[in-house]
Amino acid sequence: MIPLFVDCSGKCIVIFGGGEVASRKAAYFSGEAEVLVISRSFSHKMSLLPVERRMLDAGRSSDDMLIGLIDRAFLVIGALSDPRQNNRINDLCKAQGILFNNADGETGDVILPAMSGGKNYTLAISTRGESPAVSRFIREHLETHFPALDEMIALQRDIRAWLKQTEPSQSRRNAILWEVLNNREIWKNLKNDPAGIRQQIQERYLHE
Asked: Which domain holds residue 192?
């Protein structure tokens, strides 16, 4: 498997299951895609999400009926409590050439990573399904130890723009960017005083 970032706008995501796991999967895609959730019941959390819900017992439904529900799907997710039913849906998706993510059962084509993001970045972390706890640990570690990551990315963008106008040497521009990245004081103060940090950097590097 290889990591990809995919634009899901306008695409249909079909989720089988209405419990807590299915709710997390639905929340992952809601607002980014058209989400259809199919289950015989829905958790309270699922009922609050902006997704389409359809009551159906997949275990009592024929293959033809399930194929009719997934025929326009970009991705199908099996989040039923019965792994055998998830595997059954996986087989139907393979036959139809539809991507599949399995929450419990045989591994499908897609693994949904733990995610951390801000205005300027998205980080996706996966252990290939072997340890979701480790993925969560890494995500929380990054968020705890780099709370100004969003601001640093914006700062680096601005510094690059400034340096392209004032510093002709590519190697010197790269050295300045790395020096800023490795400056602990900048990281420490950037969250609370981004304007002040920008002023300091301009005075230090752009007016030598």
From this structure: 149-205
